[in-house]
């Protein structure tokens, strides 16, 4: 089982675990005691001590058991919920510190499925503790049976062990099916993700609508249903075998044992009552087998999730380097022989960027151009610190960006990617109130004044915008973040021709005058002359890098003070 999961269990206070085990143990012994008490009363055997107070002892045992039971359950509820919380926290922490690269490889569906796994794991202690209690009761019962008749006790023990072996063997087959079910859950979330994100496209095509449901989602559920029925029937068969084996045991006690071992009626009755009493705890122990299998599978999946997301040591964020990049204003970024590639397998590179050597200076307005698939966005991800170079180095103000500086490096710039996401909440704590004059000027600059709806209560803006308006709003948010470097990936693609011209000829120069360094990926060759530098990519390689004349910088345009 994964070391992290064990850590979550181990982190519980030893005292609480000991208390729970103790309470469970005492309760089980009291339960066993109550059974013997009842048996003795049936057999009309008086108690060896204080027989005249048997009723009081019975009540005291009952109260003791109730009290232990209640305390045990309360602690269990607390522990289970704390563990569930810690599992959630563990996953959220992983995501918090995960790199974009790891997350991209992982996919959304695995995150959803792994959250499911934590639910299974969180309830594990409860089940195991109940099983532990049942085991103690079973041990007490067997001790009692051996005490009444060692041979009889041995026979029943043998039957039980045989049953257990039978269950274990059958369970091995079921485990494979449960693993299959878990794989199907992953792909179910993947298709569901496709459906929910592409709902509009699905509704536009009868064929797509039909296929995504029948060939993927419903087919997946059908397979899960079939496997689930099969495993449930296997478990049911196991349980029926178990239950009816008990009746055979009862038959042996009733008809065979009195004859073979010469048991008295009183002893036979004691045997019967004890075995009947044993059915409950043994059933709990047997029910543990599927739970154990489910827990094992969930733990393995969580383990591989941990590995895929990668572990980033928290100390790397808290060391003395932590604010090394904060201390200085942006001066330059330098790529030294930076390479990157996507791979299908171990050595199979589907696309590779050839070593990049460039230097970006403060105040530049760089356009990055090139055909589709030439590597512009991959370069942008490297520049943004979302991808780490496979080889080579990136320097920020001559400071090498080592692994522990990557998050800070990314934080130095604002980026708007092609498939930019507008968040529902104001996670950046921006001032989005209607009283913010800077915001008002930016809205004016990007022609959104009449479109935007302020929500002063939530310090947020309404979200009903067209694609082009969303990009403009994203740019406003990026400018409110007030970072010195702005990275734009085909930002103007959704803008109308008039606004596009205004953007290239007026907005970008204003931003430049304010000291921003802008790197914009663009296919708008009509406006390449607006840049101070043009970098062209082709087949993963920079094929040209030319400085242009700064003719568009001095434009008379109202300049918002940001
Ligand atoms: N996550 C990924 N995994 C594997 N290959 C990828 C991934 N992202 C991009 N690629 C591949 O890398 C190559 C370069 O892609 P990139 O997105 O950098 O091109 P681009 O120049 O930005 O193209 P476009 O102008 O179409 O946006 C493409 O061949 C693409 O198939």
TrEMBL record:
Give the coiled coil ranges: none
The record's subcellular location field reads: Cell membrane
Its topology with respect to the membrane? Multi-pass membrane protein
Report the protein name in the record: Cyclic peptide export ABC transporter
All copies of domain ABC transporter, residue ranges: 333-562
Q: Where are the transmembrane segments?
A: 52-72, 127-147, 153-169, 244-261, 273-295
Q: Is-annotated flag, keyword Nucleotide-binding?
A: yes
By its UniProt entry, which InterPro entries does this protein fall under? AAA+_ATPase, ABC1_TM_dom, ABC1_TM_sf, ABC_transporter-like_ATP-bd, Cyc_pep_transpt_SyrD/YojI, ECF_ABC_transporter_ATP-bd, P-loop_NTPase
| Highest taxon of source | Bacteria
Q: Which UniProt keywords apply?
A: ATP-binding, Membrane, Nucleotide-binding, Transmembrane, Transmembrane helix, Transport
Tell me which species this is from: Agaribacillus aureus
């Amino acid at each position: 089982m994964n070391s992290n999961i064990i850590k979550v269990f181990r982190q519980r206070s030893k005292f609480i675990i000991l208390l729970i085990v103790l309470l469970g143990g005492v309760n089980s012994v009291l339960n066993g005691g109550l059974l013997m008490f009842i048996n003795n009363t049936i057999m009309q055997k008086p108690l060896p001590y204080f027989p005249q107070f048997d009723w009081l002892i019975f009540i005291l045992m009952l109260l003791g058991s109730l009290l232990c039971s209640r305390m045990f359950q309360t602690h269990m509820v607390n522990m289970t919920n704390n563990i569930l919380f810690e599992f959630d926290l563990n996953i959220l922490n992983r995501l918090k510190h995960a790199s974009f690269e790891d997350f991209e490889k992982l996919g959304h569906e695995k995150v959803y499925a792994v959250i499911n796994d934590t639910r299974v794991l969180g309830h594990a202690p409860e089940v195991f503790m109940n099983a532990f209690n049942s085991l103690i009761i079973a041990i007490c019962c067997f001790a009692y049976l051996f005490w009444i008749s060692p041979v009889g006790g041995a026979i029943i023990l043998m039957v039980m062990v045989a049953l257990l072996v039978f269950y274990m063997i059958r369970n091995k087959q079921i485990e494979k099916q449960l693993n299959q079910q878990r794989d199907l859950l992953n792909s179910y979330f993947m298709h569901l993700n496709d459906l929910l994100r592409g709902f509009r496209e699905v509704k536009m095509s009868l064929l797509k609508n039909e296929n995504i449901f029948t060939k993927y989602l419903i087919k997946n559920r059908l397979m899960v249903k079939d496997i689930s029925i099969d495993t449930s029937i296997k478990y049911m068969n196991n349980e029926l075998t178990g239950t009816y084996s008990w009746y055979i045991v009862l038959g042996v006690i009733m008809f065979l044992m009195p004859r073979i071992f010469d048991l008295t009626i009183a002893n036979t009755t004691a045997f019967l009552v004890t075995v009947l009493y044993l059915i409950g705890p043994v059933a709990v122990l047997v029910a543990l087998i599927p739970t154990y299998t489910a827990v094992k599978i969930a733990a393995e999946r969580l383990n591989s999730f941990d590995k895929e997301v990668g572990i980033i040591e928290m100390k790397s964020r808290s060391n003395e380097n932590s604010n090394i990049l904060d201390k200085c204003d942006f001066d330059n970024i330098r790529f030294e022989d930076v390479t990157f590639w996507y791979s299908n397998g171990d050595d199979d590179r589907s696309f590779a960027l050839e070593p990049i050597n460039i230097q970006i200076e403060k105040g530049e307005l760089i356009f990055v151009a090139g055909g589709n698939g030439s590597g512009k966005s991959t370069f942008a991800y490297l520049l943004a610190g979302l991808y780490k170079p496979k080889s080579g180095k990136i320097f920020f103000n001559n400071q090498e960006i080592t692994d522990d500086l990557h998050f800070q490096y990314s934080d130095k710039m604002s980026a708007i990617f092609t498939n930019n996401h507008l968040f529902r909440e104001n996670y950046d704590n921006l001032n989005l109130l209607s009283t913010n004059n800077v915001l008002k000027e930016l809205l004016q600059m990007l022609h959104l004044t009449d479109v935007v709806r302020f929500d002063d209560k939530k310090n947020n803006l309404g979200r009903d915008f067209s694609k082009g308006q969303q990009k403009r709003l994203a740019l406003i948010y990026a400018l409110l973040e007030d970072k010195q470097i702005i990275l734009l990936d085909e930002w103007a693609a959704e803008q109308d021709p008039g606004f596009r011209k205004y953007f290239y000829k007026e907005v970008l120069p204003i931003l430049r005058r304010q000291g921003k360094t802008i790197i914009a990926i663009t296919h708008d060759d009509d406006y390449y002359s607006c840049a101070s530098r043009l970098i062209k990519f082709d087949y993963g390689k920079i094929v040209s890098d030319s400085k242009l004349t700064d003719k568009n910088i001095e434009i008379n345009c109202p300049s918002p003070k940001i």
